[in-house]
Amino acid sequence: MNATRRNFLKTTATAASTALVLPAPHFNIIGKAKDDDSIIGHGDYRYRVHQEWGNLNPAETPVFNCHEMVQDSQGRLIMVNDEVKNNILIYNRSGKLLDAWGTQFPGGHGLTLSAEGEEDFLFIADCGWFYKNEKWDKQAGKIVKTTTDGRLVFSLGHPLTIGAYNEDEPFMPTEIAVAPNGDFYVADGYGSDYILQYDHQGKFIRRFGGHNNENPAHNLSNAHGVAVDLRNSDQPKLICTSRNENAFKFFTLDGEYLETVKLPGAFVCRPVMDDENIYAGVCWSTNPETGKRTDNSGFVTILDKDNKVISNPGGNQPEYKDGELQPIYQVGDIFNHGHDVCVDSDKNLYVCQWNANRTYPIKLERV
Questions:
Q1: Which has the closest alpha carbon to 187: 204, 209, 169, 202?
Q2: Which residue of 25, 256, 281, 299 has the lowest C-beta tally within 10 Å?
């Protein structure tokens, strides 16, 4: 977006928000409307909703849970879901399907792009949950590295086989993050809540997180996501989701705990880095009146370079009191279990949803 357009938007923000706000106190959003009519978000991070952007013929290209999406070096949008007729869907920016492949990931959950030289690779996390049968296979969790057209590079199974886990520790991985040196980090978000570090060839290095640290701040509860934070190139960090605690926890790349960023009311999924911001899907939010988790809820949250929430598309306007973020929660009914956010090169967002009646991704066009 050019500077002239950005300045125009800033000067007209007050008038625009007045026209869009529903008659509810403290909110700067609107509820669900026809496709392309809804504008959601706050401040400089407002978006027009395109609910039909990625819709396909479900008889030919079905989805079950649209879990995660990444953009590759060609500008294509690649998504993983747990429908084994086509685990991987590849879209262009207009929402046209370019390719579909993958039949071996019934628990297809995490998707991470690894740019290596002039070639892109995918890391896929299969959590071992068979949604159609509604059961776990605690031995089926795996991490797979492929090319973007599905050629296998390597596959890693249960860490028990290399002595990294005990027999009573389940492994149900949900996410991967890749560091600049090629090391990759696996979040065992549905299993034992460890973060597992491997080198670029898949050799195990260490684990951290889990449940039983002497310092509770080091523990992770539903370590659903992980991302490498390079905003300070001299001090790279790892951002780990502790979803049940409504928080992101920051570690060094060697697994030393640094700090916790609390997101009260938000059951956040994986952190997604883009420039100086962190984006995340919120799979559930807390009811502000009862304090209990609300099913069939969700929104998107955006944090700035200081890890402060600056916009909640589909949620309430963020508010800080005495430096503390007040509870954030869904407003309206745009989203149903927001699971992941992909940011394209024009700063548009694509939201994948879990348990949302087999719906395809929603596009949020930056305005």
A1: 209
A2: 25
Instruction: Please state whether the predicted TM-score (pTM) of the whole model is above 0.85.
Output: yes
**pLDDT (tens digit, 9 = 90+) per residue, 56-114?**
999 999 999 999 999 999 999 999 999 999 999 999 999 999 999 999 999 999 999 99
Q: Is 164 exposed, middle or buried (0-12, 13-18, 19+ CB in 10 A)?
A: middle
DSSP state of 159: G
How far apart CA 265 and CA 146 sit, in angstroms, is 36
Q: Which residues contact 121 (CB under 8 A, 6 or more apart)?
A: 113, 114, 115, 145, 146, 147, 148, 153
Q: What is the DSSP string of 290-328?
A: T-SEETT--EEEEE-TTS-EEE-TTBPPP-EETTEEPP-
- Among 45, 146, 133, which Cα is nearest to 90's? 146
Q: Which of 93, 80, 82, 89 is nearest to 61 (CA)?
A: 89
- Residue that is written with structure tokens 């990625």 in the block: 54
CA 271/CA 187 separation, integer angstroms: 12
